[in-house]
Design a protein that fits this description.
Its cofactor is Zn(2+). By secondary structure, this protein is α+β, with helices and mostly antiparallel strands. The longest helix is centred in the middle third of the chain and has 34 residues, at 384-417. The mean pLDDT is 98. The structure holds arginine and zinc ion. Arginine (ARG) binds at residues 127-128, 265-266, 268-270, 303-304, 307, 326, 379, 382.
């Protein structure tokens, strides 16, 4: 067992830094075996601190200290001590220069935090606390410094040397090495520091800002990926224009660089002027990347770009404020994606993700508020709650204020706090000031975990022509808080009748935002001449679980008549959910399953529409996922959920066979196009093909096979491969095997495509899933050190293959625990993240609960567990 168990760090214990670092000069020399880091820090006592002592405490992890000096005088061993992750210097003056030299080992750094080697390049990842693996420092976001960085490395091995800001000077040494000095004029915390050294190819473009400044845009990738940069570059330029137009934010340096690396713990990182990206979030080409992959690249490139203002120019005071930058920036990138494509499609995708992933997190043992009150390891808090729920909270502010006031609020926020490290309260204060609204109650969204329940009933009084909505809100207890205060919930509503939406005010508006603040609250609409069906929470105006006693007929009605596109989709989902839940009960009771014809009719109607956006049509025709049903279940019955969803797909496939075939054919194009309309067509086409397969139509195998063989793009190819691999018919096996082999042979030199090959097999629902995954773990293309590979195989199997991972024998749980234990020794951040599915054990039947707990306990008992994995395992048991 570890000797000292890590404890929680509390927001209430926040103290301003005792010392400041005005200037940071680094010289990083990268050698064959290791690297040395020479740091010169210009420091002074913080006038805002009431600390009176003389000692200075710095962060440092896995650093081999070579020398340490204050004002040029080397310190003796008696003048400092190293305790775990702290360097304590007993006596420092009020103003001084601290010089240190440390040795670090990037080649042995498998945590991918700090300075590490990925394939042919050296690069860094410092957020949240990786800088302390590079040098001794005050590694906290409220210490902001002016950085000058010199990188030294072999000229042949690392022709490209990069860091933040502008290139200031460079030269060659006579031993085959060369150097480059970068200077970043903007003050920044250490988590935004970056350095890259490697053999990289460059794609260049430029952008002229609204004030007429030219910015050089540079994308650094491996030579073989040079053809896959166009989409990221276009997305970057679109994001730059958009931020000028929508938020009035202009880029501030003369240079914007993006570097693509293959081994990366997350999607991407917004380091000032030098973003570092997971290759999966920047490279895109129709032959290797699906349409969803293209959208993801656009969103992540924009997200990191938007951080330049929401994150870098105005940063976080401490890590409890993480959502200040992440929630706001996710909101900004979602607005951007909505503007670039279809707003309703984007909203549906986001809400689907929120309802499955974030709602599940919010009801489990790791539930935490958007502004957490405590944490053990901050890396564990890069969660759907901080990001996606955080974004929903900002969206609610936007809904309450309206776009103009919201924009005035962000203007004031950026103006007041430019160059500062601030809090969520500062952000909300700017919004309160421009709107003269009271946000006291609204802050509960930031401070309470858990998903609020909003129950609504209605009654109609024809005599008085009154329609009343009765709201009742509550929120279940979560680990940090048992008793919840009521929330301030913006509920966007419309009243729908067969002849359309009723006007709700004198201006004829048909949507109104109600503000629900009480535990029980009634809202009365006057002058309502016929009984309407309420359309509630339009656009998903608040992240709550809404219930209203809709009949199936009312849901079908809303599906066809609601003027709100999101709610039309949502009505369809609720209709399917009601039917599926009833069938789950039938399945458990052994009652034969029968599909309600109303769903078939509703689907037929949607398929017959000719004027709807095809991407929307495809979304409406997609049944809620197994994981959404699981999230909604009292106790998750794995078999029942899986069998019921399969049954419905099969019946819908069979009953509407001819329509699916016609839709498939009508949306098949000879020539590939990347336009929004073409993407929409492909999604409807591939969905239709999947239903043909589900309905086991005779021609579906050959259609699928032909599409696989002839596809000229990855969306169609992968969709056909997925179909073949999941087709339960005997005659599909040889075709599926052949296709997998061919796919591998064709794409074995493309790591990103192989990720998709692993994902397809890891998600295969046919029996024997675990054995297939275990065989693939031994495949030469699998690499336990590469997070994308781990996520593609282990992650997808454990998070997206409900029926196989939760096989009753519990072998899936054992497999996951074994891998988490092994991963924890290499990469704690990835290990602790992979543990998530086991933390949900309380949601399953007693047999599975016991098996899952046992494996969690085994992980927790592992000696020398990282703080990351320890926190998740201990909090879940
Ligand atoms: N700030 C990065 C972003 O744009 C993500 C950093 C994630 N860090 C981590 N330790 N997981 O969202
Ligand atoms: Zn971010």
């Amino acid at each position: 067992m570890r000797d000292a168990q890590p404890g929680n760090i509390y927001l209430k214990d926040y103290e301003v830094p005792r010392f400041l670092i005005d200037k940071t000069e680094l010289r990083v020399e990268i050698g064959d075996k290791d690297a040395t880091v020479l740091a010169n820090l210009t420091m002074r006592r913080n006038p805002a601190s009431n600390y009176q002592g003389k000692s200075l405490s710095l962060h440092g992890v896995q650093l081999e200290l070579q020398q340490l000096a204050v004002d040029g005088r080397a310190l003796s061993k008696a003048e400092y001590e190293v305790n775990g992750e702290e360097l304590l210097i007993h006596r420092v003056p009020d103003n001084f220069t601290l010089t240190s030299e440390v040795l670090i080992r990037p080649r042995e750094n498998t945590s991918l935090e700090g300075l590490f080697k990925s394939r042919t390049m050296y690069c860094t990842q410092c957020e949240a606390q990786g800088f302390r693996k590079i040098t001794y420092y005050l590694d906290r976001p409220d210490v902001m410094s002016e950085f000058t960085t010199t990188v030294v490395a072999s000229k042949s091995e690392c022709p490209v040397l990069l860091s933040n800001g502008n290139l200031h000077d460079w030269g060659a040494l006579d031993d085959g090495r060369h150097w480059a000095t970068w200077h970043d004029p903007f003050l920044k915390p250490a988590y935004l520091f970056a350095l890259v050294a490697g053999d990289l190819s460059l794609v260049e473009d430029s952008f002229t800002t609204c004030s007429g400044r030219d910015v050089a845009l540079k994308l650094y990738v491996e030579e073989k990926d040079i053809e896959k940069c166009g989409h990221a570059m276009d997305s970057l330029k679109n994001a730059m224009v958009w931020d000028e137009e929508v938020y009035g934010r202009e880029y501030d340096l003369d240079l914007y660089m993006i570097v693509a690396v293959d081994d990366f713990n997350m999607g991407a990182m917004e380091n000032k002027g030098l973003n570092i990206f997971n290759t999966s979030c920047v490279l895109a080409h129709p032959s290797t990347t699906t349409d969803d992959g293209f959208k993801r690249v656009e969103a992540v490139v924009a997200h990191e770009y938007f951080h330049n203002w929401s994150g870098n120019r105005v940063t976080c005071r401490d890590w409890f404020q993480l959502s200040l930058k992440e929630g706001f920036t996710v909101f900004r990138d979602s607005q951007f994606s909505a503007d670039m494509g279809s707003a309703t499609v984007k909203r549906v995708e986001d809400v689907n993700m929120l309802r499955t992933v974030q709602f599940a997190e919010d009801s489990g043992p790791t539930a935490h508020p958007v502004q957490p009150a405590y944490y053990m390891e901050i890396s564990n808090f890069y969660t759907a709650t901080i990001y996606e729920k955080g974004s929903e909270v900002v969206r609610m502010i936007h809904t309450l204020l309206g776009p103009e006031l919201f924009r005035r609020g962000t203007d004031i926020y950026f103006e007041r706090h430019d160059g500062q490290a601030v809090t969520i309260e500062d952000f909300v204060a700017a919004m309160a000031d421009v709107s003269e609204r009271d946000f006291t109650q609204f802050m509960n969204w930031y401070r309470q975990a858990g998903t609020p329940r909003l129950s609504v009933t209605s009654d109609y009084d024809p005599q008085q022509q009154q329609f009343s909505l009765h709201f009742s809100q509550s929120c279940p207890p979560t680990p940090e808080c048992q008793e919840k205060q009521p929330y301030h919930i913006p509920v966007s509503v419309g009243l729908v009748t067969p002849s359309g939406d009723l006007p709700l005010d004198a201006k004829g508006n048909t949507t109104q935002v109600l503000e629900i603040t009480q535990p029980e609250q009634t809202v009365v609409f006057e002058g309502i001449t016929e009984a309407p069906v309420p359309s509630l929470l339009r656009g998903f105006s608040a992240p709550v679980k809404l219930s209203y006693p809709y009949t199936l007929d009312q849901l079908s009605f809303l599906m066809g008549h609601d003027s709100d596109g999101f709610n039309r989709w949502n009505a369809g989902q609720q209709l399917s959910i009601q039917l599926m839940q009833a069938l789950v009960t039938d399945y458990r009771e052994g009652t034969p399953l029968v599909l309600d014809q109303r769903l078939v009719e509703a689907f037929a109607k949607v398929l017959a529409e000719t004027d709807t956006d095809k991407a929307m049509q495809a979304l409406v025709l997609m049944l809620p996922s197994e994981y959404l049903l699981a999230e909604l279940a009292e106790v998750i019955d794995v078999e029942a959920i899986h069998q019921v969803r399969r049954f419905m797909c099969r019946e819908l496939g069979r009953e509407l066979r001819d329509t699916w075939r016609a839709t498939y054919l009508a949306n098949s194009e000879k020539v590939f196009e990347m336009s929004g309309a073409a993407v929409a067509k492909r999604s409807l086409k591939n969905l239709s093909l999947r239903y043909l397969l589900n309905g086991a139509s005779d021609d579906s195998l050959s259609l699928m096979h032909t599409q696989f063989m002839e596809a000229d793009n990855m969306t169609d190819r992968l969709s056909a491969l997925n179909g073949l691999v999941n087709d339960p018919r005997e005659e599909a096996r040889p075709l599926s095997e052949q296709a997998l082999d061919k796919f591998y042979n064709d794409w074995q030199h493309e790591p990103l495509v192989l990720n998709q090959w692993f994902q397809t097999q890891a998600a295969c629902v046919l029996p024997g899933g675990l054995e297939r995954v275990k065989v693939l773990m031994e495949h030469p293309a699998f690499d336990f050190h590469n997070p994308n590979k781990v996520r593609s195989l282990i992650g997808v199997f454990c998070n997206s293959n409900l029926i196989n991972f939760h096989d009753e024998a519990g072998e899936g749980y054992r497999f996951l625990a074994d891998n988490v234990i092994a991963l924890d020794k290499l990469n704690p951040q990835i290990a602790s993240r992979q543990l998530t599915p086991l933390t949900k054990w309380r949601r399953y039947d007693l047999t599975r609960q016991a098996l899952m707990r046992e494996e969690l306990a085994r992980v927790l008992a592992e000696p020398g567990l990282s703080r990351d994995t320890y926190e998740i395992a201990s909090k879940s048991l």
